[in-house]
Amino acid sequence: MILDKIDELLKEVQNLSAKNAEEVEQLRLKYLSKKGEITALMNDFREVAADQKKTVGMKINELKTLATERINQLREECETQEGGEEALDLTRTPYPIELGTRHPLTIVTNEIIDIFSRMGFVLADGPEVEDDNHIFTKMNFAADHPARDMQDTFFVSQHPNDVTKNILLRSHTSSVQARVMEHMHDENGKLTAPIRVICPGRVYRNEAITARAHCFFHQVEGLYIDKNVSFTDLKQVLLSFAKEMFGADTKIRLRPSYFPFTEPSAEMDISCFICGGEGCGFCKHTGWVEILGCGMVDPNVLELCGIDSKEYTGYAFGMGVERITNLKYRVSDLRMFSENDTRFLEEFESAN
């Protein structure tokens, strides 16, 4: 009688099925719980004759093992099915997901930072929404300088009676230099340490957007102030930078120029790395390509920032990252840097 019951349950267990976790739980309760079918068989096992106990006991264990394995299998199948349904999101990007690449401006900025870092320069940063005092006044700009006009600068707020209180989007990262200089003093107003910083960042100018210009771009400016700093020091640093960035055979030349915050000032050209200085369409057949402006920090700038110009001297330089990137990769349209066209960005995967 009990063996027939066991055989009947074995057939049932072999054919068990469930559509969800709730049905699996009902099967567990029916067969494996304290009030289940298998537990009832074990209670009846006490009444089995002694000569049949071994056979019946083996059959009950076989039934219990099969029921446990089958119910566990059904549970796993239901969990997999339900998990797959939850993970299905038709709005997700299809697999495989392609890895991105660094933006070309980021690649070049990091390379510039790395070169100057190896020469002892440290990073400095400042706000993009800045006051006139740090952008223009402490950089020795006259109160009526054209750069303060609406056609050149994005103003957030203006004070007609005091231009130094104007708030604007910074038009160059020289404002970071001003902030660094004014905070490098001890209680007596003495410079606490030599200043050697580079200031990368985004800047804004009210210009028409074309293939050669944009209303925002990126700069990296450098500043070194200490005792006995000379123009020779500036030239050697810029020569080392040019050789690291554009190749060991690169030459430089410095042409006299004018900036309100440096005196003397110069524009720096590098020998054309395409034609080797022989002259080509890229360098307009001159053999030279302009890359940055530089000069010795004007004594007025030092004094306005609280530094004794009779004791300290220094140099500064600044370059546009888009300009350097164009020279390295010959990008024909400046707007491509900000359009987020993945076809363009994929071209720089090998440059990471």
Detailed description of the structure:
The protein is α+β, with helices and mostly antiparallel strands and 352 residues long. The chain folds into two domains: 2-87; 104-351, BirA Bifunctional Protein, domain 2, CATH 3.30.930. It is 37% helix and 19% strand. The longest helix has 35 residues, at 53-87. It starts with a helix and ends in a 7-residue tail after the last helix.
Number of helices, counting only DSSP H or I runs of 4 residues or more: 11
Task: Give the % helix.
Answer: 25-40%
Write down how many β-strands occur, each being a DSSP E stretch of 2 or more residues: 10
Terminal Cα separation, in Å?
78 Å
* CATH H-level homologous superfamily name of the largest domain: Bira Bifunctional Protein, Domain 2
Shape descriptor reads elongated
GO molecular function: ATP binding; magnesium ion binding; phenylalanine-tRNA ligase activity; tRNA binding
Domain Aminoacyl-transfer RNA synthetases class-II family profile: 114-327
Subunit structure: Tetramer of two alpha and two beta subunits.
Family: Belongs to the class-II aminoacyl-tRNA synthetase family. Phe-tRNA synthetase alpha subunit type 1 subfamily.
Please write out the topology.
Elements: H1 2-14, H2 21-32, H3 37-44, H4 53-87, H5 104-117, E1 122-123, E2 129-131, H6 132-135, E3 155-157, E4 167-169, H7 174-183, E5 195-204, E6 216-226, H8 231-246, E7 252-259, E8 262-271, E9 288-297, H9 299-304, E10 313-320, H10 321-329, H11 342-345
Parallel strand pairs: 1-5
Antiparallel strand pairs: 2-4, 3-4, 5-6, 6-10, 7-8, 8-9, 9-10
